[in-house]
Amino acid sequence: MEYQSFLADRTRLMQTNAIREILKVVSKPGIISLAGGIPSPQSFPMDLFKVLVEKVMTKYQSRAFQYDLTEGFVPLREQVSILLSRRGIIASPEEVNITSGSQGLLDAMGKLLINKGDKIAMESPTYLGAISAFNPYEPEYVAMETDDLGLIPESLDETLAKYSIKLIYLVPTFQNPTGRTLPLERREKIAAIIQKHNALLVEDDPYSSLRYQGEPVPAIKTLAPENVIYLSTLSKVFAPGLRIGFYAAPAFLRQWLVLVKQGVDLHTSTFNQALAAEYLEGQYLDTHLPKIIDLYRPRQKAMQVALEKMMPQGYVCTPSQGGMFLWVTGPEGLDDLALYEKAVENGVAFVPGRFFYTDPLQGKGTMRLNYTMADEATIETGVEKLARAAGQLTG
Ligand code: PMP
Questions:
Q1: Position 13 pLDDT exceeds 90
Q2: Residue 310 clears pLDDT 70, i.e. is over it
Q3: 360 pLDDT exceeds 90?
Q4: Which CATH number is associated with domain 4-45+287-394?
Q5: How does DSSP assign 181-228, residue by residue?
Q6: Tens digit of each residue's pLDDT (9 = 90 or more) over 70-108
């Protein structure tokens, strides 16, 4: 059957997720995958789920299975409001909304704000899922300059002066894909710049709780509350499959975001929100988060040490103190896809870095490595194989 004519124009803009395609290859037995982008199942509080289910059943009974408010389950919004206040973000429960994962808000932002040809300013590289969420709304991307510390504030200032920018999208802390973090001085400059230009910034923050070294850095939301939509998730500190994300947005946007969500899914699963509310209210996050950090910290360290020790000259890893990824830039002229093929031949996989750029000419000598899914010994063997592949490539 001829089916192309059934598809909407926007559907053509939804490319298959390149990373998904790669993950299909690497699920073959015998390949060490540093390509994943997901938390370790060992990080899920498995024993606790039974306790939480019991609590939800007793406390909320049929309410946990009923339709609920689009804005979110009130007991969860109360808890998220407390969680945000610990991050220095002042948002009452009424000012907090729940989404189906933070991904749900990225799509809603695109739907709400982006006309064809509107400009979104991004870090380069940036989170692939944000590009996928925005693409169907046909934006143009403006890539801003970055270095090992993230966005260079002057580049943001120039971009806002030169173009009419609808939206700025940033992952300031332990960014996916680079693992890098914007220091406070840059956040302060960025806050002042977006206030000066009356600009709107999406601060996507799924990873700041996963800090293995160093001191926390305040969210940009704390510095320019009226200009920032702060977005976070329980995916990395509870369970991604429950799809619980949350955000604090300026008042003028909140009602529209709720309307958009109403049309998409009415609301996020009541039962899952109730589980999340009990997780936070019972202070279980406080006891469980250190266990997740104890699991990941040595994995990150093992990968940093192995990369430093084993990779040939010219391969440099971006410094990182947390999150789930490390970013490696190869020597001048490296082709990340050629290295990927060699790496798979040697029994290891990563994500070629070019997929994280909106400009198809950029990122060809880069790679993203994940360290949450493998233990330290496997990570070391994986990096050894990668180093061998890199050596073979340069001859
Ligand atoms: N933003 C970033 C930067 C991410 O890395 C992820 C997860 N890969 C998400 C958003 C989506 O997370 P979730 O929808 O599970 O909250």
A1: no
A2: yes
A3: no
A4: 3.90.1150.10
A5: ---HHHHHHHHHHHHHTT--EEEE-SSTT-B-SS-----GGGT-GGGE
A6: 999 999 999 999 999 999 999 999 999 999 999 999 999
Say which residues have a Cβ less than 8 Å from residue 349's Cβ, sequence separation at least 6.
Answer: 22, 25, 26, 31, 32, 33, 34, 35, 340, 343
CATH number for the segment(s) 66-285: 3.40.640.10
**Would you say the CB of residue 109 lies under 6 angstroms from ligand 1?**
no
Q: In whole angstroms, how far apart are CA 122 and each of 64, 80, 106, 290, 356?
A: 39, 27, 13, 32, 11
- When pLDDT is averaged across residues 339-351 and rounded to a whole number, the result is 95
Q: How confident is the model at residue 245 (pLDDT cuts 50, 70, 90)?
A: very high
Which amino acid does the sequence have at 349? A
Give CA separation, 22 vs 35, 149, 329, in Å.
Answer: 8, 28, 20
Our answer on whether the CB atom of 233 is closer than 6 Å to any ligand 1 atom is yes
pLDDT at residue 384 greater than cutoff 90: yes
- Could you identify the atom of ligand 1 that is nearest to the CA of residue 244? 16
3-state secondary structure of 33: strand
Mean pLDDT computed over 261-286: 97
Q: Is the peptide bond before 125 cis (omega within 30 degrees of 0)?
A: yes
**C-alpha 67 to ligand 1 mean position (Å):** 25
C-alpha 388 to ligand 1 mean position (Å): 32
Top mutation candidate among 106, 132, 235 for ligand 1, by most atoms within 8 Å of CB: 235
| 395, pLDDT greater than 90 | no
Give residue limits of the domains in the chain.
4-45+287-394, 66-285
pLDDT digits (tens, 9 = 90+) for 171-203: 999 999 999 999 999 999 999 999 999 999 999
Q: Is the CB of 36 under 6 A from ligand 1?
A: no
- Is any atom of ligand 1 closer than 6 Å to the C-beta of 232? no
**Residue 73 beta carbon below 6 angstroms from any ligand 1 atom:** no
Residue with the nearest Cα to atom 8 of ligand 1?
A: 37
Does the Cβ of 102 fall within 6 Å of ligand 1? yes
Q: Is the CB of 101 under 6 A from ligand 1?
A: yes
For the beta carbon of residue 105, count every other beta carbon within 10 angstroms.
28
- What is the residue with the minimal CA distance to atom 12 of ligand 1? 102
**Tell me, what's the pLDDT at 202?**
98
How much is the pLDDT for 49? 97
β-pairing, 228-233 with 201-204? parallel
